[in-house]
Amino acid sequence: MWRRRQLLARGAAGGSALLLGACDRVFQRPEVRTILFKGEDIHRGLQRALFDRDALAPEFRPDQMSPRFRTNGTRDPGTDAYAALRAGRFADWRLTVDGLVARPLALSLSDLGAFPQRPQITRHDCVEGWSAIGKWQGPRLAEVLRAAGLSDRARYIVFTCADYYGGAPYYESIDLVDAFHPQTILAWAMNDRFLDVGHGAPLRLRVERQLGYKQAKYLMRVTAVESLAGVGKGRGGYWEDNVDYDWWAGI
């Protein structure tokens, strides 16, 4: 897979040897990052133009489900706060829905269960090269956002999690195309059981047309924002900011 930084540098610089040969030290300069991340917005638009906004990820029969479904990313947040929630079977856990919404929410698992539920059997494709088919269930993210009264100013939805990377909570984001896609759900169940810790208990994102690192686990907060500029280093996700992964990991 081509790194986006290489693609953006070639597209933005034309024949310029400065960007084509830029080393990591140059890439970290604020003025260079500003230029490249402006190109990031263009790249996102091109990606969207090449993919059907309404296309569905394949869904499978129960007999096609994988006998083993590996965990991706964190296997246990390992913090005192998460351990306390886990010990209480997540009775005190709440999902905060805030940002550009008219009615901020604090939703328990029971609250989420009161929304219309969507079950779906889909394939998880990990950036590490493995895949597995499993069944997920939860409310559509779109229904939760509607209940919160999403503002017309909102362009992205940011997810903040209970696991920590580099001393800060893990984070990811998607745009409104994916947020309102019928297969984008807040999953509390996997294979007809409550999520286990390794798979993101008590709640994880399922955005089925993207790779596994976009499927944020251990959800604590859902925030509607107008721009990704204030999220991490500005690229919308931990891996995007720190390992140069694609922000839109479409499959």
From TrEMBL:
InterPro entries: OxRdtase_Mopterin-bd_dom, OxRdtase_Mopterin-bd_sf. Residues 91-226 form the Oxidoreductase molybdopterin-binding domain. It comes from the Bacteria. PROSITE patterns: PROKAR_LIPOPROTEIN. Gene3D superfamilies: Oxidoreductase, molybdopterin-binding domain (3.90.420.10). Pfam families: Oxidored_molyb (PF00174). This is Molybdopterin-dependent oxidoreductase.
